[in-house]
Design goal:
The structure is a homodimer. Chain A is mainly alpha-helical. Chain A is built from 5 helices and 3 strands. In chain A, strand 2 (about 65-70) and strand 3 form a beta hairpin. Chain B binds a DNA duplex (30 and 30 nucleotides) through helix 2 and helix 3.
DNA sequence: GCTGTGATCTATGTTTACTAGAACAAGTAG
DNA sequence: CTACTTGTTCTAGTAAACATAGATCACAGC
């Protein structure tokens, strides 16, 4: 699996890496225990500076989604099977969700349409059933 | 109605103004036709530079949510009663929603919980029923 | 004419994003 | 033990973004 990065996008590169990893976790492609490429490897493969990758990985580490060790490199620390989120996360997520949902609403989408879109997006991540197989996935 | 701005927040000030206005539109507090304070008035009231307010209002204007005229000042251009969104908006919104939903998922919220939260947030905006009364709301 | 409005131009300072190099420490393989 | 890879940290520089500031113009209403 390769991280698609759009270097000309207005979204900062470190944010793109972060977002793609989070989406990989949500979709089950990157289950807990899966390895990501090392900071230097991803930087070399993507043609970007390893400090930029480090920022993305460090952000994921701070959020509790990634373990970074010299022994194992970058390893997914948690996924949806790993238990409920911290309260801090929930409150922050609600705030951001409120704004995003407000945008949909202001632009004319109905409650039903918005919920349908969210449902479809969640469904696209995979069924909300048993935990994914703990096979080791990788981004390289 | 006063825009709550947190000047020490990591969220840029212009983004906060934008987001609060969008939320006002979504909740019906700012229906189509409602007036916002002038750029200079909001800047003076908030203790910020009017260029910063101008950036927020211009962003809203570009998104089709605000009309800016010398005659009427800043007036809400649309709300949920004004018809469906542009396709461009929907595609962009989906992309952002996918990332936000992925975050909830990666941190351990179930499909059901996520949808429940979205539903609750949407409900808090007000019922998805008849258009709000077209009384002129104001942020001043 | 005066006042208030949005719009536009130039300029400055601070913060953020991204890049770069160097170095250190920990861990692994040969 | 050596060489290599790994994450981590420090310093430094450039470009872009954010916020500020002043000035000016055109338009509208009184």
């Amino acid at each position: 699996m390769i991280i698609p990065l759009v270097l000309t996008s207005e979204i900062p590169i470190y944010q793109q890496i972060h977002d793609r990893v989070v989406e990989g976790i949500a979709s089950g492609t990157l289950p807990v225990g899966a390895s990501l490429p090392s900071i230097r490897a991803l930087a070399a493969d993507s043609g970007i500076n390893f400090h930029t990758v480090n920022k993305a990985y460090d952000l994921l580490r701070q959020e509790g989604l990634l373990h970074l060790t010299r022994k194992h490199g970058a390893v997914i620390a948690r996924d949806h099977t790993s238990g409920p989120p911290h309260q801090d996360f929930v409150a922050d997520w609600d705030t951001r969700a409120r704004t995003l949902l407000a945008e949909a609403r202001a632009h004319g989408l109905s409650h039903g349409d918005i919920l349908d879109r969210c449902q479809a997006l969640l469904t696209a991540f995979g069924v909300d059933g048993p935990p994914s197989a703990p096979a080791s996935g990788s981004l390289a």
